Amino acid sequence: MKIFKKRVLSSLALLLLTSPAILAQEPDSAAVLTLKHAVALALQNSRDIAYARVQYSVAQSEAGVNRAEFRPNLYTGSGAAYTSGFPAAPGGQGPSIFNLSYNQSLFDPLLRGQLKAAQDRAESQKWELERTRDAVIVRAASTYLELAKVRHSLELLRSERESQQRIVDLIRERLTSGLELPIEVTRGELTLARIEQHFIQLEGADHILTAQLRDMTGYPDSQALEVEPAETMVIPEQSTAELSDLALSNSPLIKEAEDDRSARQHLLKGERQSYWPSIGIIGEYEVLTKFNNYSEFYNHFQRNNVTVGLSINIPLFSAKTFANVALARNELAASEMSLGNVRQQMRIDVQQHVQTVRELDAGKEVARLDLQLAQESLSAIQEKYSQGHATLKDLEEGRLDENEKWIAFLDAEFARQKEELTLMQASGQLARIFQ
Question: 287, 314, 341: which is the final residue of a domain?
């Protein structure tokens, strides 16, 4: 008997020791996804960002192609050809069984301008990547905040539906007793139907927003997606002038326009300097054969031949160069005008966003005070109800009014948060908020 007790106690002790480890291995299905974590997951899993990175790599590779003109280029080849008469191969050179050629551009203003323009385009693509990143942040944060608002509103609507159902039941009882008119029942049922319609709409929005957030973050379908209902963002207080200056200095859209102007400037400079000579290094090594009749047309035959030197091309007159200069000049003028338009539009957009945030902030304050008034009114009705000076219908109507004011407040808060995200995107401060 003692041995049996010892075994039972040992088994219980082993179970108590191992159970924490077993529980630790199970995934926390009730984990709450925070706003910053959702944004971080969206940035990590975004297909748009991955595509923008590929486009940036392509732009860098294109610049590398232009850069290769100023680096050593070595080619080799081999072949055999039958000749009858003067030994010549396609291209003007004589046939050879082996050849090795080398070329490298030392000074070519046109190619140099194209290289710098390609580098500017690659830099512009980097700002496009930043712009895509900001768009993903705004989309993920907006979806998260809207989902939190919808779920909070659904909780309020459940309570509102229950209160309205109790009101309808009470009116029906009073109708049976002859204390209410039939129109009051219809009015109550209409209110209940509207609440049910709103509830169904929010349920659909909940499903859609949850699917969108899962798609953006890569959140597994097997795990419940819980969000924080009171999640807020810390937005720094800044004046309109400060926000405009930040937008002009940080906006990826302006940076792209500036890089485009720089690329046009380099192209124009290269076209203008193409009137100057271009210089390059050339080299050639060939192994010739006697069966190509070289000895019949040349006084001396030499099997191994080497040519090394500089290739200098001096343009005398080129109508195409004149046309290219005019085209590059006009493209630069168009790019400068586009940059000015983007800057001016950015100032206007920032001012408009600031004004919209102020209006929505005022609307949020009105909704908050309206909610506070409804809560205080409900407290007064509850006090009267406990003293027998108010009916159950008055109490439920007070609860309905409080729930409606809560939903209005949540809508006002979400509208303000969404506009703040747009303002932070325009001023280039999203990365600092969600870092």
Answer: 314
pLDDT tens sequence across 291-331: 676 766 677 778 888 888 888 888 888 888 889 899 999 99
Unique residue bearing structure tokens 């090594």: 285
Does a structural domain hold residue 10? Answer: no
pTM of the full structure: 0.79
Q: Whole-angstrom Cα distance, residue 111 to residue 125?
A: 21
How would you classify the pairing of strands 226-227 and 32-33?
A: parallel
Give the count of domains, the chain. 2
Q: What are the distances in angstroms from CA 74 to CA 31, 115, 263, 306, 312? A: 61, 21, 30, 14, 19
- Beta strands in 251-293, from DSSP E residues, in sequence order: 278-287
The span from the CA of 313 to the CA of 108, in Å, is: 10
Backbone angles phi, psi at 91, to 5 degrees: 105, -10
Q: pLDDT digit string (tens) for 152-197? A: 999 999 988 998 898 889 888 888 888 888 898 898 899 889 999 9
Residues 123 and 213 in one domain: yes
One domain, residues 127 and 87: no
Alpha helices in 26-89 (DSSP H): 35-45, 47-67
pLDDT digits (tens, 9 = 90+) for 107-140: 888 889 989 999 999 999 999 999 999 999 999 9
Residues 343 and 333 occupy one common structural domain? yes
State residue 300 phi and psi, 5-degree precision.
Answer: -135, 130
CATH number at residue 272: 1.20.1600.10
How much is the pLDDT for 75?
A: 86
